[in-house]
Amino acid sequence: MLMKHSQVLKDGTYVKPKHEKLAYGTMVLVRVGIVRDACKQLQRAVTIATRYSAVRRQSEIVPGEPEPQILDFQTQQYKLLPQIASVFALLFSANDLATTYLQVSKDMTKGNMEMLPELHSLSSGLKALSAADATEGVEICRLSCGGHGYLKSSNLPRIYSATTCAITYEGENTVLWLQVASLGRSLQDVALKLVVDTESRLQRLCDMGQNFHHAWNNCSVLLVRCAQAHIRYFVCEKFLQRVKSSAVSEGLRGVLHQLCRLYLIYHITLNHGDFLRCGSLTSAQISTLEDELSLLLTSLRPQAVAIVDAFDIHDEILDSTLGAWDGQVYERLYEDALKSPLNKTDVPEAYHKFLKPLMKSQL
Fold first, then answer.
1. Are 93 and 237 in contact (CB under 8 A)?
2. Catalytic pick from 136, 139, 170, 199?
3. How many beta carbons lie within 10 A of that of residue 214, not counting itself?
4. Worst-scoring range by mean pLDDT, 36-50, 106-120, 270-284?
5. Rounded to an integer, what distance in angstroms lies between the CA atom of residue 190 and that of residue 226?
6. Do 228 and 129 touch, CB atoms closer than 8 A?
7. Least buried of 63, 80, 143, 206, by fewest C-beta within 10 Å?
8. Residue 170: active-site member
9. Residue ranges of the alpha helices (H) in 113-186?
10. Is the dihedral of CA 197, 182, 171, 149 positive or negative?
11. Gap between the Cα atoms of 48 and 145, Å rounded
12. What's the mean pLDDT in 235-256?
């Protein structure tokens, strides 16, 4: 079982594998699964938070008018709609990675190892990005539900704990980003600029007398940024390709296109400094993108609940008082509260036994 690629002969001689990264095949397959699982966890969290946001009413947008659904507040839309878009981005990237893995595995059986290093780099980057994005996204969803998001019955704390562990298992994310950085190539201007600047710094440190390994370590923060830009570009590219190629109605394609634009602009505005630094965007263009971001949030808001419903996650899987399909949030919260031993009686026994005698005594 352990001698698929390397072998130990009967006389004890060790025979190396044909390619040093052949053993990475199984690891890549596991990482495909991690990307898909991260996507599923984010799906659950954003379904719960979006449905809750369509039920919860609070504050006023216009003084004197009824309290709106909190999903009508653009700050809430900004929290949740990019996470919905991220679900599709991760899903499409995971599918593409799985297809690439199958093709490379087929090539390997024929002795062609050319794409194996690229597959290893890609799987490392996508695992790191999906784990980080999903973890941050689930936490945003939890916070968007206010105090109710902290309840065990919301199921958001469990989803968060099940997601964040992916940052460390099967390769800690920073280590994986550095593995991607060792193959740093990208067509995107920002990634290319970061790679050029980092290479220049690496060379400068070596010229100053540092050996390569120490110079690499002293550039590792920039190398991580290079890797992140490269993989983010890959994810955005696959999102765009899938929107164009999917055999869906034009109406659905329009929604997917809006989600894709939202995903792109959301991450550009979050990292606008890199785009300004490399000169690929001006400050005026960043402002234009921020305006479009606002329009996309408004346009996608009416679709939000329908989109998460389309994930078709059964209530038994969500296991949440906040995110059930029927929208009966407060009824479910009340039913769950009744299960607590503290609520078996209107007045706890401790009051009659300890507090009442103290309050009635003549101190």
1. no
2. 170
3. 12
4. 106-120
5. 9
6. yes
7. 63
8. yes
9. 116-144, 156-164, 173-181
10. positive
11. 9
12. 90
Q: Please enumerate in sequence order all residues whose Cβ is within 8 A of that of 220, keeping only pairs 6 or more positions apart, or say none.
A: 178
What is the token pair recorded at 353? Answer: 């036994």
pTM of the model: 0.84
Q: What tens digit of pLDDT does each residue of 100-125 get?
A: 888 887 877 777 777 777 787 788 88
Please say whether the dihedral angle defined by the alpha carbons of residues 158, 41, 166 and 190, taken in this order, is positive or negative: negative
Residue with tokens 């201007």: 189
Tens of pLDDT along 285-322? 889 999 999 999 999 999 999 999 999 999 999 999 99
Report in angstroms the alpha-carbon separations of 111 from 18, 22, 108, 115, 295.
Answer: 9, 11, 5, 11, 52
Q: Quick one: tokens of 227?
A: 């890797």
Q: How many residues are present in the chain?
A: 363
Q: Which CATH architecture has domain 18-318?
A: Up-down Bundle (1.20)
Rounded Cα distance between 311 and 82, Å, is 16
